[in-house]
Each structure stands twice: as structure tokens, then as C-alpha cells.
Specification:
Elements: H1 3-16, H2 23-35, H3 51-55, H4 66-85, H5 89-108, H6 135-151, H7 154-189, E1 197-201, E2 208-215, E3 218-225, E4 231-233, E5 237-239, H8 243-246, H9 255-266, E6 271-273, E7 280-283, E8 297-300, E9 312-315, H10 321-331
Antiparallel strand pairs: 1-2, 2-3, 3-4, 3-5, 6-7, 7-8, 8-9
Helix pairs in contact: 1-2, 1-5, 1-6, 1-7, 2-5, 4-5, 6-7
Length: 339
């Protein structure tokens, strides 16, 4: 999730284990420990645009790396502030450990994918409980950890943890399962035998969900707004990526072909050729409007590129006011717009 939420959750667990006199240290160490794993975004290579995709949410997010990552944060914090303030390294480490331990598990609740079992497996865990940004997680966390810091009472931090677990568990899991069930019903109504429907929360909420399933050689993308009544916003379909059909010129041994497979792994297989740009391969998992195929990122291939040249990586953040109006209309559960 976003760094603010990660830091707040790390602080809440550290505060929940702290006594009144150590609440300030617990807050600082918990925040830093909770945010530190995302320093892996600094691992980049100007000549290899996909390198950061391989390392983000990799070793620094592995469960086995938690005590190591926490130790690095604790040593740095103790060196900068701990000695001067008389903090013991052991106490600093314990609070950093609690903060660091929350990060990967919270990230795995999103749909991006987190390598919890690295180096034993490169599987990407994505439980699809919550959006990468959700104010209903972040704002209560911030209010409660602030109350805990100001009063010195761990009770508020424990309430923050309880709220987060309740939202992710009862809200996210229950809502996700309901959205997936609607996705299966929609697929059946079309005569499709969907092997698997995945539901992913849309931006900032757990009411409006994006559903994706594959039938034959096509992906189908729709939106489900939970509530009374449930609203279905039927969306787009697109042919799944077929390199032999879509990029017949691509040499299987070239660096671009290897990059496609790296991007396939990162995207968990949800790939298609962009209908708007025939040289681009897109990740279907993300779009602002959950019933559309307007990806936030993709890779661009070049038929004239050298055998040892990488693909290009592109992102798109071009939502206009009309798109936001449609999003809010769907989030409110209004009837689908007529085309």
C-alpha cells in the first residue's frame, strides 16, 4: 500500500506493545520499520526498465528477511538518534521489528503481488482485499496512532490494529468473495465457462470491484458495485496475448522476448495487446474505471530494435474529469450509463 498507511500500521503494532514512557520511540521506530521495505524501489537500471519490477516487493518484502531488514533500520536509527537519547539498541530493534513485520502482509492484501516466500519461491501473493490507496484504512489508523502518541495509551494503537484487521478481513474478504460470485454469475449468463474469476477493489474503496475472467482466448472485464441492489457495469473484452499472432516478428531468443516473459510474470499472466497501440503489451489488472481496459502501465516492443535491446516501459495517468465523474457514479451505485 501507500507509504503513509504502511508507516501508520507499523507504528500501531509497535505502539500496541509499548509502555507510556516509550511511546515516542515506538511510534518513530514503527513508522520507519513499516516504511523501510519500500526502499527497494531505488533498485533501478537505466538500461533495463523492468529491473525495478523484479525487485519491488521481492527480498525486502520476504517473510524471512523481516529480522534482517528490521536490524538494518534499527542500527541506522540508533546511530542517528538512539545514542544521544539513551535508547538501548535492543529496544529500538524490537520496535523496528514490529513495524517491519506489518509491511509485507499488508502489501499482500493488495492485487500488485508480493514475494512473501522469496528466495524459496518467486510466487507473487495478491489476496485482493484492499486497494493500494484506501482512506478508510489510512484515516482511522492516523487518528488512532496520533491519539496513542499524545496520550501515551496503547489502547488506541490496539484499536487501530483491530480496525485494520476488521476492514481487511470482514470487509475485504467478504466483499471480494461476493464480487467474485457476481462475476461467475455474469460469466454464466453469457454462456461462458469461466475457470477462474478474480475480483480486485477499485481505487480507494471496497464497494466497487473490477472482475476479470478468461473464456476461451479472451479476457472479460466488468465492474460490480456491491450493495442493495448489486449493480453490474458490463465492460470490455480483449483477446489474450498470443505472441505468435500479435508479434510474429519477435525472435524467441531476443532480449525483448525475455522481457515479455518477465512482464508476464509480474502481471500474473493478465496480458493483452493494446488495441490503441499495436506495439504495446498491457497489464489488464489495473484501470481507473473498473469495467474498462485502459491500463496504467505496459511495455512497448520495437520491430527494428537490436537483438540485445530491452523493451520500453510506459505508464499512463491521463484520467480526465469525465472519467472521474463516471467513477463516482459507479461508486454511488447509479444505473449504468446508456451508450
Amino acid at each position: 500500500m501507500d507509504p503513509l498507511t504502511q508507516g501508520a500500521l507499523g507504528a500501531s503494532l509497535a505502539q500496541g506493545a509499548a509502555r507510556r514512557e516509550a511511546m515516542g520511540l515506538a511510534t518513530l521506530a514503527g513508522v520507519l520499520g513499516g516504511m523501510a521495505p519500500d526502499l527497494d524501489v531505488l533498485i533501478r537500471d537505466g538500461e533495463d526498465p523492468l529491473l525495478f519490477l523484479e525487485y519491488h516487493r521481492q527480498f525486502s518484502h520476504s517473510l524471512i528477511f523481516i529480522p534482517i531488514g528490521a536490524a538494518l533500520v534499527a542500527v541506522a536509527l540508533h546511530a542517528v538518534l538512539g545514542r544521544r537519547r539513551g535508547w538501548s539498541l535492543k529496544r529500538v530493534y524490537c520496535f523496528c521489528l514490529l513495524g517491519y513485520a506489518t509491511h509485507a502482509l499488508l502489501d499482500a492484501c493488495t492485487s500488485y503481488g508480493t514475494q512473501l516466500l522469496w528466495p524459496f519461491s518467486d510466487a507473487r501473493f495478491a489476496w485482493n482485499n484492499v486497494s493500494i490507496i484506501d482512506p478508510l484504512v489510512t484515516l482511522p489508523l492516523l487518528l488512532l496512532i496520533t491519539a496513542s502518541l499524545r496520550t501515551g495509551r496503547a489502547l488506541f494503537a490496539r484499536l487501530a490494529l483491530l480496525w485494520t484487521l476488521t476492514y481487511l478481513g470482514l470487509g475485504g474478504v467478504t466483499a471480494r468473495n461476493a464480487a467474485e460470485a457476481e462475476g461467475y454469475r455474469l460469466a454464466a449468463s453469457r454462456g461462458h465457462d469461466a475457470v477462474r474469476v478474480e475480483a480486485k477493489p477499485s481505487f480507494g474503496n471496497i464497494l466497487l470491484w473490477k472482475t476479470v475472467y478468461r473464456a476461451g482466448d479472451h479476457y472479460y472485464v466488468d465492474a460490480v458495485r456491491l450493495g442493495f441492489p448489486v449493480r453490474i457495469y458490463e465492460g470490455d473484452s480483449i483477446a489474450a496475448l498470443d505472441l505468435a499472432r500479435d508479434f510474429p516478428w519477435l525472435d524467441a531468443g531476443s532480449l525483448q522476448a525475455r522481457d515479455v516473459e518477465r512482464f508476464r510474470w509480474f502481471s500474473m499472466g493478465y496480458l493483452a495487446r493494446d488495441p490503441e497501440r499495436r506495439d504495446r503489451i498491457i497489464d489488464l489488472r489495473y484501470s481507473l474505471l473498473p469495467n474498462e481496459i485502459r491500463p496504467l502501465w505496459g511495455i512497448v516492443l520495437d520491430e527494428t530494435a537490436q537483438y540485445t535491446e530491452h523493451v520500453a516501459y510506459e505508464t499512463r495517468r491521463d484520467a480526465d474529469p469525465a472519467t472521474w465523474r463516471r467513477f463516482w457514479s459507479m461508486l454511488r451505485g447509479l444505473p449504468p450509463e446508456r451508450s
